[in-house]
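B., you asked whether I could sanity-check this one before it goes into the benchmark set. Here's the sequence:
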Amino acid sequence: MCTPVWCRPLCRRFATDRSFELQQSLNSQVRSAYHGSTGVIISWNTYDQLSNPTVHYGLDPTQLTQVAVGNVSITYQTSLTYNNHVQLSGLLPNMQYYYLPDHLMPDVVPEPYTFTTSRPLGDSSPLSVGVVIDMGAMGDEGLTTYAGTGVDNRTILMPGEQNTIQSLAAETSSYDFVAHRKSMVPRPALHI
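And here's what the prediction gave me:
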């Protein structure tokens, strides 16, 4: 079973990037999820279906020499994007890895993203987990100042108020990872 996890360094990046880069990164919705004790699944969104979603990764941000290729690029009828998923396996425990998915949204040439693999089995040192359900969204296809019929106006974020991603970015030193309970893809549909 794969539990989606947004890594702290990614949220830190959200807090410091310029607005345009922030919007583009969020539209690609790059994310990582633990997959067993030595694996991670990298996921991201694209406007086109990919025949071979690909991730370059390694232990050095300047040498992403390892490559993993997947075959999952799926969507649903009302979505604007395809969800791409690539499994990285055989990873070392408790190590920071750097990675870049191919085919990010247009005009984006990001620095490598990071994730830290799970601790070794049996490691009983304490850790702190942030748990969220709806990560929210920002940019042209995300956060708005209005909502549909029946939504209480007091629950709508106004300009200047913090959304979920901004709150996570402000608190990166208080957690080891974030567990995002609601997956972007129904669990039975994800076969990697």
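One thing to flag: The longest helix spans residues 19-28. Otherwise nothing jumped out at me.
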